Structures are given as C-alpha cells and as structure tokens.
Automatic annotation (TrEMBL):
Domain of life the protein comes from: Bacteria
Organism ancestry: Bacteria, Bacillati, Bacillota, Bacilli, Bacillales
Pfam families recorded: DUF1963
The name this protein goes by in its record: Uncharacterized protein
C-alpha cells in the first residue's frame, strides 16, 4: 500500500470516510530538512545549507530591514531535493532559493510594524551558473549571535496533512465537532507516529520543512491561496532559537510560487 492510500485508510477506519475525497486532495508531500553541523569549508558553493554564509551572485546586495541587516537563514538548491511533483501540485525543481530574516530582538519585539510585514524577510531566487556565485560575508554590523552555524542538509520525503492543532482543520475541512475529535485522534495517535519523524519525542526535534503543511506552534494559518514555502525550527545544530524553541514560517501565494516570484513572501514567527 502506498503512503497516500495508507493515510486515507487511517481516516476511513476512524469513521471519517465521508471526507475521503477531501482528504485525497489534502495529503501533500513535503521535504524534511535534516541538519548536521558542518564546517563552511566542507560545504560546496551552491550546495543546500542552513546557516553559515550564503553563496550569492556578485551583484546581489545583502538585505536590510530599516537599519537592521538580516540574518542568513538558508539556501535551498532545488536540484538536490527529492521530486515531489503530483498531478495536482507543481513545485519548482531548479534554481536556488535564499532565505533571510530580520532576527534582531529589538526589531522583533519593539518595532510596531514588524509582525506580518513582508519587508522583514527577503527571499531571493537564482537560476544561473554555480560558478557565478560568491560565498558572501555578512555586514560587519550584523551581530555575531545572529550569524547562525553552517549545517549540511539531508533532504527526506515526508508526507503531511494539516496538524490537528492547526486552524486549517477548522477553516478548510469543515469538520463537525465530533469529526474534529476523530481527526485529532488519527493525527496524534496514528499519522504522526508513522509519518512525522520525531513528532512524539519527549525531546525537541528540529522540524525544518520545505513545502507541504506547516507544523504549528500556536495553530496560526495564513489563509486560502497561501502555502508553506519553508519552515525553520529552533535547534542546536544551527544555533537558531525562535522565541524559546519556536519556529519561523515563510509563506508564499500559490500564483507566485508557480511563477517563481518571491517578492511577496510573508514570514510568521511562532513561539512556544
């Protein structure tokens, strides 16, 4: 039995067979990004990584928000990622996506226009020759503690459905109260144990994820027409800590992803 059929059978056995058609469309592949601390020198130019220093085209300037230089979060070389194309969903398979975020505490907590402001993060896309990339030093004024450890990334296919604690379950699926409880049990007791590595661990396990559904800390849902582009967790390997083991989510509109337009990406941070 393939993964999608197996997941559908979990819902059917729980008495949710009336939603089978909806669930069939709902199940999405994602790419889990497993990190391991690695010296910058051992990571090739253009290779996927979290933290460290970005490999940028020479003409790209380091992004700022107001007077704050952004922290480099990740570069994802899409050609290194598993192919997760489906009949109903198309993902880009070429180029490099770069992620930056304003991580200064005084910006995040004191600037009144920070939250839900698309200008506090920057996502860049490059689809040229690797030999045109330069490993780029951050600005001198970027605080050392906001320059994250370089990590090698191992990508892994991981199937996702909306988390039982996500508002997506209530806003999109339209479940009755009784069926919401059934969905919760399927997610918590069956699906997460089998398909989400580390979900049930008593210790914090980093859940960095490209595409698919997000793993919410507070249940926030960006809304219809948006999708998860990248989820970044707090973890020791990168030395990232978002609001006490929280997560940062980069959201993109479906239309923009299809057309490789990343200027409208919005970032949400959720703390534990």
């Amino acid at each position: 039995m393939d993964a999608k059929a197996d997941i559908l059978s979990m819902f059917q056995e729980a008495g949710l067979e009336d939603y089978s058609e909806t669930f069939q469309r709902m199940i999405k592949p994602s790419i889990r990004l497993i990190t391991e601390r690695e010296s910058e020198k051992k990571i090739a130019i253009g290779q996927t990584k979290l933290g460290g220093q970005p490999d940028l085209p020479a003409n790209i300037e380091w992004p700022y928000w107001k007077e704050y230089p952004m922290s480099f979060i990740a570069q994802i070389n899409l050609q290194e990622m598993p192919n997760i194309q489906t009949d109903n969903d198309i993902h880009p398979t070429r180029g490099i996506i770069y992620f930056f975020y304003t991580a200064y505490p005084e910006a995040m907590y004191e600037e009144v226009d920070f939250d839900n402001n698309p200008e506090t993060s920057k996502v860049l896309f490059y689809d040229g020759e690797i030999n045109n990339l330069v490993r780029t030093q951050p600005p001198k004024e970027l605080s050392k503690e906001l320059q994250f450890n370089s990590t090698r990334v191992t990508p892994r296919l991981e199937w996702t459905i909306p988390d039982s604690d996500s508002f997506e379950v209530y806003e999109v699926l339209g479940l009755s109260k009784n069926d919401e409880e059934k969905y919760w049990r399927v997610f918590q007791e069956n699906f997460s144990n089998k398909y989400i590595e580390g979900y049930t661990s008593e210790f914090h396990v980093g859940m960095n994820r490209l595409f698919g559904y997000h793993d919410p800390v507070q249940g926030e849902y960006k809304g219809e027409g948006w999708r998860l582009l990248l989820q970044i967790d707090s973890e020791d390997s990168t030395n990232m800590d978002w609001d006490d083991t929280g997560r940062v989510y980069f959201w993109i509109k479906d239309f923009d992803l299809k057309n490789l337009q990343f200027d409208g990406v919005t970032t949400i941070r959720e703390g534990a």
